[in-house]
């Protein structure tokens, strides 16, 4: 068991002073900070990141120069982590202050948790990606709360389901569609939600689930097909429809099926407990 002794702490302190001479930090404050983040017996080579630990300690203690250095020198290096989730420049610009606040503001400021397991830039990249994903999830939640698509569709002069609404199959079609969505796995249901309600691109879905673009597209197409086939089976069972009869109904709504799915997916969503649905999954092995 390795214990962090004063000699190692003092060497780290000197390394930090040499890298950041304008940051005013007392050794005792540095010792207390590292004792907290490292524990008594760190199993990693924290000393190689001594200067990063010194900078983070300065930020944690409220040193203005340390905060300025983090904002000016470190944060610009991790904006690519945000743009990999959402490339829109305005999104990246809006996420930057959110990242700063998460790192530096309040008693739960994340900068206080950096423990030198890797470089500070690598650690900040992870924090930036989480901020970007949180922003995407919040956007999806906001759109879902505001959508009210079923009501708007019912009131619209041009209803994409107008042919079916006037037919005997309207209620059963919607019921079968809702049942098909409920029967999806959490991942598949959330893929549809992210795509149709959150308006995420295929590239964004791939980044969120850590798979390539082709795999994300294949997943999404498979989910749509699964929903469509479930609706087919249910309507055929309920009404005794032949494949030709069902296809005749389906053709009238095929091009708007995504819109109708959006309405189904836009109901109250349990976002407080839905984080597991958007957690990245292991890459698909083709």
Could you explain the architecture of this structure?
- This protein is mostly helical and 286 residues long.
- The protein has two domains: 6-135, no CATH class; 148-278, no CATH class.
- Helices cover 66% and strands 0% of the residues.
- The chain is built from 15 helices and no strands.
- Helix 3 crosses helix 4 (64-74), helix 6 (89-104) crosses helix 7 and helix 12 crosses helix 13 (213-239).
- The radius of gyration is 26 Å and the shape is elongated.
- Mean pLDDT is 75; it is low at 147-162 and 267-286.
Which regions have little confidence, pLDDT < 50, spanning 5+ residues? 147-162, 267-286
Gyration radius, rounded: 26 Å
The total beta strand count reads 0
Provide the number of structural domains: 2
- Order of H and E elements: HHHHHHHHHHHHHHH
SS strand fraction = under 5%
Shape: elongated
Question: Kindly state the mean pLDDT as a whole number?
Answer: 75
Q: Assign a percent range to the helix content.
A: 55-70%
Tell me about the largest β-sheet. none
Please count the helical segments: 15
Which class do the helix and strand fractions yield?
mainly alpha
């Amino acid at each position: 068991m390795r214990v962090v002794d004063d000699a190692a702490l003092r060497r780290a302190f000197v390394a930090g002073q040499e890298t950041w001479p304008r940051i005013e930090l007392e050794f005792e404050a540095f010792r207390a900070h590292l004792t907290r983040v490292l524990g008594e017996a760190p199993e990693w080579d924290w000393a190689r990141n001594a200067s990063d630990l010194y900078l983070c300690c300065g930020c944690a203690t409220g040193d203005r120069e340390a905060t300025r250095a983090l904002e000016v020198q470190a944060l610009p290096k991790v904006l690519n982590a945000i743009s990999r989730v959402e490339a829109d420049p305005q999104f990246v610009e809006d996420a930057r202050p959110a990242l700063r606040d998460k790192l530096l503001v309040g008693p739960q400021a994340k900068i206080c948790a950096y423990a030198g397991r890797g470089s500070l830039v690598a650690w900040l990249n992870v924090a930036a990606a989480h901020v970007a994903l949180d922003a995407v999830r919040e956007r999806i939640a906001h759109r879902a709360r505001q959508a009210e698509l079923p009501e708007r569709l019912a009131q619209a002069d041009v209803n994409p389901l107008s042919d079916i609404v006037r037919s005997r199959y309207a209620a059963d079609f919607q019921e079968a569609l809702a049942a098909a969505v409920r029967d999806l796995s959490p991942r598949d249901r959330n893929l549809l939600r992210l795509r149709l309600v959150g308006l995420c691109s295929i590239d964004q879905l791939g980044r969120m689930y850590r798979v390539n673009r082709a795999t994300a597209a294949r997943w999404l197409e498979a989910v749509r097909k699964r929903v469509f086939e479930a609706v087919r089976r249910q309507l055929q069972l309920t009404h005794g429809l032949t494949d030709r009869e069902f296809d005749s109904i389906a053709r009238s709504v095929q091009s708007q099926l995504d819109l109708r799915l959006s309405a189904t997916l836009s109901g109250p969503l349990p976002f407080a407990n839905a984080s597991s649905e958007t957690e990245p999954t292991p890459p698909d092995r083709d």
